[in-house]
Amino acid sequence: MDISIDFMRRIAVAAAAETLPRFRSQGAVVNKEAGSFDPVTEADREAERVIRALISAEYPDHGILGEEHGSENTSSRHVWVIDPIDGTRAFISGLPVWGTLVGLTVDGDAVAGMMSQPFTGELFYANASGSHYEGPGGPRKLATRKTTDLAEATLFTTTPALFKGEARQRYDRFETTVRLARYGTDCYAFAMVAAGSVDIVADPGLKPYDIVALIPIIEKAGGVVTTFDGGPAEKGGDIVAAATPELHAAAMAALRG
């Protein structure tokens, strides 16, 4: 099925009405995970609430999986996957590299998705017509870079600290093979793969709501997104996205050791 850009814009506007007024406002932060730090804010919860309401009104038979409010009707062929603020740590630090992620799976395959960054006024989305951008500079169709050599690639990861044990050693060796490595930015780095500014993103331990919306945006722009072992990314896990099939194969080989 196709999802109209008008519906994605409505989601982006509704979510922004909950997130932007709370951004850089020093609001309360709750830690969801004892012994670690997994922050959630009122903005996360309220943005997901309005997104779920829009989806339920438009597609009442569809299922929903959200980071903050759980799952409903996920036995449906059509399931929406929501991360109201991907990059909550950036959000509470006042950095505009978080985003609202909403993706649609059909029979488990990600077919449409959007990433909205309302502070910068950017919307990245993919539907049956391809992968697109709206924001500063005007609308355009997204396309990945044609990089095939690791030595010419720009690599992002949230932080190398997420790689544990031997995986960290493999990541460190991998980083030495690329031209430029940078850290942070969560969903924004994946969007930059689709936009042709970043070549590889490698992030271990992602949840479905961290990646489902981004899969069609990258794939329809010409990129590849899988787990480190080449499996489908829709269920999350250790995820690598790359601008070209050749670069993806090289990155997978390096990350597997």
UniProtKB/TrEMBL annotation:
Cofactors, names only: Mg(2+)
InterPro entries (UniProt xref): His_9_proposed, Inositol_monoP_metal-BS, Inositol_monophosphatase-like
GO terms assigned for molecular function: histidinol-phosphatase activity; inositol monophosphate 1-phosphatase activity; metal ion binding
Keyword tags: Amino-acid biosynthesis, Histidine biosynthesis, Hydrolase, Magnesium, Metal-binding
Residue runs in coiled coils: none
GO BP annotations listed: inositol metabolic process; L-histidine biosynthetic process; signal transduction
Pathway: Amino-acid biosynthesis; L-histidine biosynthesis; L-histidine from 5-phospho-alpha-D-ribose 1-diphosphate: step 8/9
EC code(s) of this entry: 3.1.3.15
Chain sites annotated for binding Mg(2+): 67, 83, 85-86, 210
Stored SUPFAM superfamilies: Carbohydrate phosphatase
Superkingdom of origin organism: Bacteria
Family (UniProt): Belongs to the inositol monophosphatase superfamily.
Name this protein carries in UniProt: Histidinol-phosphatase
Species, as recorded: Mesorhizobium sanjuanii
